[in-house]
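fold-stage: in
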Amino acid sequence: MFWGRKTSLGIAMMLALGAATAMPAAAETIVVRASGPSAKGYPPGKKLADSGTLSLKAGDVVTLLDGRGTRTLRGPGTFGLTAQASTGTDSRNTLASLLETKRVRRARTGAVRGGVEEDAPAPRSPNLWYVDISQPSTACVPDPANVQLWRPDIGSAVTLTITSINGGVSAPVTFGAGEAVAGWPAALPVTEGASYRLNWAGLAKPVDIGFSLLGASAGGLENMASTLIAKKCDAQLALLVETVALPDPAPDAP
């Protein structure tokens, strides 16, 4: 299944994001997640001076994002942001992969080596703008007229019933066997704050999806992450963070 043709806004934003990763790292670092004793001091979206340092306690884990990608700092220790921002592998290739619109191949649940089946990594959405139906979320969308649904389990055909939580209007969406992507039904408008409930046979609990529309100025890696944080599009933020992750840095020598 290929991305639809109504993608002028989405493609423009993708190109802006890809161009941003090709540029030298900007002098802006933002916090995307934090846990541990010092977490209150590093709320998601907080901007840090590129020339500063972070002093973390034992148990602290802080994930930062800049123009090169994301890196996770683990305490205890003191970390220099400038030095760490200049290390690691360029994330352009992995980010470009996330923004590709190629056909999604059949997902495998496991690999067999030496006659023993091993667990494979869970399937991951191949595009930041696909709406993952496997988890409740707020989905940020660049083009409300061309929303695409994605599912990780493509082993069999399934028909979803999508119902407006506020209005009660419903519409079906069918995924064929082996298909990971299906278009959002035109009968259900995608607007800022709209919420829908997804249900299908065998599902233990319905999945609620809300929508938030992106403006044309959301391009750029740091700006994109900040927008996803502000709009609480947590599933897409996690996908972005994972895709552009750099090796974990070590603390500065005492």
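fold-stage: in (second)
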Amino acid sequence: MARTNGIDLCYEIFGRDDAEPMLLIMGLGAQMILWDDEFCQQLAARGFRVVRFDNRDIGKSSKLTGGKPLKPLELLKLRFLKIPVEAPYRLRDMAADTVGLMDALGITSAHLVGASMGGMIAQEIAIAFPQRVRSLTSIMSTTGNPKVPPPTREAGAMLMAPPPTTKEEFLTRFAQTWKVLRVGSFPLDEAKDRERAERVFARGLNPAGVGRQLRAILASGSRKERLRAVKAPTLVIHGTVDPLVRPEGGKDTAASIPGARLMMVEGMGHAIPIPMWPQIIDAIDRHAHGAKAQQ
């Protein structure tokens, strides 16, 4: 555990102490263990000191308070009347959490790899704390630009579904959720879903915290204009069939950050399935080591 920005964050490190630091930032309602152990180990084997952690309000990190469950009416007001969503904290606060974790670990700057909401947090760090970022990899994320198409009906319904009330219901929902997000058949991942879900459940659920994180995303608005100031070498990775953050979200991110490279992964949804690890780990590795060579 590390004390940062007035809260406690739970973290884990893979790799040598003297290797290039790389922070993996997870998405909405996702614990750090959804960066699979083997995924982290493979990155560490490429010469990185890999740090994964639970964002605030998830897993073993501090739970906050406040914020009512989102209602469809509130989302409609945001979408059509541009009335902002109220939130106890914003993505900028979560960016400050991450920087505080770096301070606690003695890391002056790091390669940032963010997935979904984690990509949004990484973008906020690159905007507000540019000196802390060696390189930025934004995966299946977006700029907050309201012109990007919304999730598919199925993915959107999943996001707004009431939380499970029993362990069995949670285990079933976990498998259903990832089947929707992965889009298509991925037997290796499907075989691991129950084990992953058991581990997530054992570390503790916090449905109210997931609601606060969702509010943070919606209340933070668009980063599109501010992203033009980002100087960090940037790689944007996005799936061609992402049902939650549509492919246009990745394209918009790459178009908004000067010099960013866009890698569209054929057949990838809103997940990093095991068969796609080699190409994604290769891309992150090349990008981060390439950024170091430029400095």
